[in-house]
Amino acid sequence: MAPKKSATSSGTTSSSSSTTASASAALSNASSSAAKSASSGAQQIDQVALSLVQHYQKATPQRTKLIDAFMAFLVVVGALQFAYCVLAGNYPFNAFLSGFSATVGQFVLTASLRIQTTEANKSEFPSVSPERAFADYVVGSMILHFFCINFIN
Amino acid sequence: MAVATDASSAPMELLVSVGKNQSTKTLLRVLILCFIAAAAVASRLFSVIRFESIIHEFDPWFNFRATKYLVAHGFYDFWNWFDDRTWHPLGRVTGGTLYPGLMVTSGAIYHALRALTVPVDIRNICVLLAPAFSGLTAFAAYLLTNEMTTSSSAGLLAAAFMGITPGYISRSVAGSYDNEAIAIFLLVYTFYLWIKALKVGSVMWGALCALFYGYMVASWGGYAFITCLIPLHAFVLVCMGRFSNRLYVAYNTWYALGTLASMQIPFVGFAPVSTSEHMPALGIFGFLQLVAFLEYVRSAVPSRQFQTFLYVGLGGVFGVALLGLVGLTTGGYIAPWSGRFYSLWDTSYAKIHIPIIASVSEHQPTAWPAFFFDLNMLIWLFPAGVYMCFQKLEDEHVFVIVYALFGSYFAGVMVRLMLTLTPVVCVAAAIAASQLLDTYLVYKSPVAPEAKEEEVTDGTAKKSKQSALRSTSQPVVGIYTLISKGFIAGAMTLFLLIFVQHCTWVTSNAYSSPSVVLASRMPDGSQHIIDDYREAYQWLRQNTKEDAKIMSWWDYGYQIGGMADRPTLVDNNTWNNTHIATVGKAMSSREEVSYPIMRQHEVDYVLVVFGGLLGYSGDDINKFLWMVRIAEGIWPDEVKERDYFTPRGEYRVDSEASETMKNSLMYKMSYYNYCSLFPPGQAQDRVRGVRLPDQGPVLNTLEEAYTSENWIIRIYKVKDLDNVGRDHALAASFDRGNKKKKAGKKRGPRVLRAE
Amino acid sequence: MKFTAIAGACLSLLSSVAADANITAPSSSKVALPSTFKPPQVFKNANLVHVVSLEKNFAKESINVLIENVSPEPQDEYFLPFTSEQMEKVGGIEVKDRKSADVVGFTVEAVEFDPLSDTQYYRIRLPAPLSPKSQQTLGISFHYLRALSPLPAAIEQADKQYLLYAFSAYCPSAYPTLKQKTEVKLPSADIPDYTTIAGSGDVKEFPVKQGSKLIYGPFPEVPAGAVSAIKVRFESTKPVTHVSHLERDIEVSHWGGNVAFEERYTLFNHGANLSAQFNRVKWAQSQYFNPQTYALKEMKIPLRVGSKDAYFTDVIGNVSTSRFRSNKREAVLELKPRYPVFGGWKYPFTIGWNADTKFFLKKSASNYLLNVPLLEGPKQAEGVEYGQVQVRVLLPEGADNVKFYTTAPESSITGHSVDLERTYLDTVGRTVLTIKARNLVDDFRDRELIVSYDYSTMAGLRKPLIIFSSMISIFVGIWAISKVDL
């Protein structure tokens, strides 16, 4: 674990300088495009999504993208579970609930980890170092899964 | 107690100034906290010293019985406990319908002490649990207040207030072994952890907060207060534009883990996802995801795009969520607000719709003197403290403000919820008081500028020769003279002393009676203990069949289960209104109606509480109208409240009483044979202060089995069906006739009957 | 073997007791014999006076008999017959020599041969064999529990209670009896029914009634095993107090210098039941006149002088209706049950008190002698009987070489054991001596229990050392953890 962590943390620091530059570039890009197509809402949404994707691709370090991939996976799993529940009935409600809340819980925990480790939020978490954040994340996940397993019967 | 608390508040400032370096301060703080905890524990021991180590009142008897069961049978049996000795013949799934936190806590303490081979009686653990936890609550209040201000004296003051304020003592004296005993500690500590998590923004604090929240859920139904307050705090913060990633982390960790933790308790089960009380928390959870996403988007895209995105996106999501909520509620997936919650919004709701809730005295709206009685000087320091919070208005101060508003409202609606208000009152009052004391007690730093000022102004005064100008020329505004400082500080100290005095007085007079044991004074001033309850319960326990069913009004169900160890029909866990109404009907109907009901429920003994001889006002005749009302709720045709009043609308028990009243089983059981205790024409009911008719009521289907020394408890045995097949009225009148005729003759036939 | 109760005065006596503690500690009070056993006809009873005392609410019988060895050899085994029903109820058999008090060493043991036989025996072993043709006067005393039954079995609350006792006018004996007489002592002269039998000599009809006393006999020679059933019904409006189980704990603490007593009673009233339900009005009214009643209202328990901190509780807590008077001359615990205990009712309770070790404990080198009453408990005019008694003596942790001796009849002691019990932060556990006894009555209140044990200073220091070291290790542990965390 340790070598990977140190490698990624150094990666974030190096990418931080490029983040600001790309953000400003995206800003100017987006504002110009917004001026052009103020007529239709749908187009605007498209524009927003577009600029969002651009911003994301530029501003996010590789490790955070990994986390995001995991979160996306969790969203998919959660959606599947929910769809199953709606379509096939929620008979073992315990099982569904614990499975679903495990995904949701894991999602928000991962999101918390992502927020805490993001360089831009550093000022908001003066006492939470990335290592601390990761340890907290592990502890939180363990508690979460303990409860889920206990609840699933 | 007075000395200890005084020592904790007054020397505090003095000692802090003495303690120069950090470690001395820490040591002092720890010592003072220990003293406060000791004072908190000590002030709750009045009842143990005055009476004995005994479980109080009604509900604690059930908790005590459940704890004994837990200790005797182990955790798994307790978890799956089906109790067939209550709610006869229905039984109660006790393991799944209680909050196990309290019992598990004392069970764990018991086993820990046993592991250390300290032979301690489980009863003593149960009796002393509440005082022990009150010491912890004081500590939690210290921590919570320390999060609010930088002044550590505020924390210590809050701890001292929390330790001795009557509003909390009322539910945590020794022997008051109720869920609140540990729940208030958990409440305050959960709030502390929440504030901590919010400030640090750490998953670990959030997880801790969730764990304690889970513990709280396991302990008390009042957990819903936390469930509503934390989301509300989050919502208010978001509305104030104070959304932060720390809030996101703290709230989500708390909600995701806390909800799962709360669902582990069988009694709570799926409630967090299926009842309306828990919906705000879920809603805020979703809302925070949205806001967080929006924040992210805002940081990523330009503001104009963001605006349109906001309108479209937010509007859509809110519409869908609201529709979904309404749809699920109407579809029955989410239970609507329960009756108890409605009664929180509309105080007259319960009176009309759920008499069983309204019949409990602690569910009544609070009378205004109660605030002063329970909180004394804190009640006027409290708004000042809240005002201080407005001045600073950090995230945690918003919490105090929100808590204060909601706590005050709920405390006003229900007497019992005074308890949830008390912590915030202590915190806010401590902030205010410490602000006052910090300002007026520090004489060193103000003295120096004052002296300088004095000299300077003295010098300048000679030049200007205008005293008015002199005062305005002072650059620092404040009070500097020692007299005014001393006056304020003295007044404050006086108030604090009066507060301590008041707390001691209230605790000793109002909250330390076990209500199982009554105390009275003999003519010579010595204490005389009236122990009728236990006398009768012990008689039941020792001299009736192991499975003899006892019918009584539900107030005494837990006590009969705990002390007499006999099955009961109804008890204080009022889960089945119909069953209670059945008992109410049996009590309020004529014998001919009641007897079949009692036979159907296999009742062997009927227990009534009668205070007429002693002037004990909490007896069954005074509760009788509630029985009638509850029975009327189910059988409006057979039981009518109006019939129990005289034509002039009075509730009377003497010769003027209505026929229905006189024929009701409760009336008959209460006054049966009572007048023969007095000379003719002298029979008197000392509670209602009326003279009773000389001819007492006649009972046909019941016979008096036991009456306690002061007549408080009367136990009747339900007669079997007559051997010869006569109805009871006939058989009884035959017996009476027989007795009169054969009174002088030998007693052959009577011996025969006894065989 | 009568020991003075004043513990301080008899150090020399106590050491002699310690010497024979080994010998007298009974292991089992039953003797196994072949199932075809019949007592050999080696004695005859030259003269016998049988006194049946019913003044208390149990039957106390004493047999003063002059025995004569009729066999050619010296004999030392005298057998005493009981029916198997009586065997369950009999207790406290003691034998003395009526002529001289210094003849000691009679041993009494139940004989086990055929459990189905209706006649069972106790064997009395004389201290010295009786030579042929010589005589010895034995004073045998014992009592029956649950021997009195109320008749009628159910009466009114204010009625008088009548008890019935059945016995044999001829004293049951395994040997022929030349001359005998049976005296029945009753609590009152109100004796409505008693069996009359044909008289002998110049008396036409037995019994002869003298006040509250009935005398059957003297009878001429009666063969071995002869029985003449007699029933007496007499007035005794007093509770028939029966304690089915008594657990008595005596905990010795050397550090505290304290001996703590706790007794748990399961008490019944075996008197007449109420024919109607309890009537509080009548009861309250009758209390003004304080009449004789068969309900148990109050018990007085005289304790040793110097007892303190007495308490009286039952399963639901302290019973407030107790009084404890303790001064230089006496210490009396007065108990009132929560409710008057009528016939057929039950009242279990617990009492306890503390006392200083100086009243009970004597030390010589590392050996200690503990001298406590075997039985305390209520002292009632009408008597109290105990079915099963268990006395536990909790000695300090590390006490060993435990021996005991008691002045109570050894036939009543059914067993004893020495175990360990862990309590109050013990590591090894305390030495617990458990003595079980059956069928005792309150006449044995002042019988002593003497326990001798060794207890070294090291054993006394064990607990403080262990607590100290564990506290130190906890603090060191906390300190170490705090260092690591930083």
TrEMBL record, chain A:
Keywords: Endoplasmic reticulum, Membrane, Transmembrane, Transmembrane helix. It comes from the Eukaryota. GO terms for biological process: protein N-linked glycosylation. It is a multi-pass membrane protein. One of its GO terms (cellular component) is oligosaccharyltransferase complex. Belongs to the DAD/OST2 family. This is Dolichyl-diphosphooligosaccharide--protein glycosyltransferase subunit OST2.
TrEMBL record, chain B:
Its EC number is 2.4.99.18. The chain crosses the membrane at residues 30-51, 97-113, 125-144, 150-169, 181-214, 220-241, 253-273, 279-297, 309-335, 370-390, 397-415, 477-500. Pathway: Protein modification; protein glycosylation. Residues 733-755 are annotated as: Disordered. GO terms for molecular function: dolichyl-diphosphooligosaccharide-protein glycotransferase activity; metal ion binding. The keyword Transferase applies. Its cofactor is Mn(2+); Mg(2+). It comes from Anthostomella pinea. It is a multi-pass membrane protein. This is Dolichyl-diphosphooligosaccharide--protein glycosyltransferase subunit STT3. The keyword Endoplasmic reticulum applies. GO terms for biological process: post-translational protein modification; protein N-linked glycosylation via asparagine. Residues 549-599 form the STT3/PglB/AglB core domain. It is an enzyme of class 2 (transferase). Belongs to the STT3 family. Its main location: endoplasmic reticulum. Pfam families: STT3 (PF02516), STT3-PglB_core (PF21436).
From TrEMBL, chain C:
It is a single-pass type I membrane protein. GO terms for cellular component: oligosaccharyltransferase complex. Residues 1-19 form the signal peptide. Keywords: Endoplasmic reticulum, Membrane, Signal, Transmembrane, Transmembrane helix. It comes from the Eukaryota. GO terms for biological process: protein N-linked glycosylation via asparagine. Its main location: endoplasmic reticulum. Pfam families: Ribophorin_I (PF04597). InterPro entries: Ribophorin_I. The chain crosses the membrane at residues 465-482. It is found in: Endoplasmic reticulum membrane. The keyword Translocase does not apply. Pathway: Protein modification; protein glycosylation. Subunit of the oligosaccharyl transferase (OST) complex that catalyzes the initial transfer of a defined glycan (Glc(3)Man(9)GlcNAc(2) in eukaryotes) from the lipid carrier dolichol-pyrophosphate to an asparagine residue within an Asn-X-Ser/Thr consensus motif in nascent polypeptide chains, the first step in protein N-glycosylation. N-glycosylation occurs cotranslationally and the complex associates with the Sec61 complex at the channel-forming translocon complex that mediates protein translocation across the endoplasmic reticulum (ER). All subunits are required for a maximal enzyme activity. Component of the oligosaccharyltransferase (OST) complex. Belongs to the OST1 family. This is Dolichyl-diphosphooligosaccharide--protein glycosyltransferase subunit 1. The lineage of its organism: Eukaryota, Fungi, Dikarya, Ascomycota, Pezizomycotina.
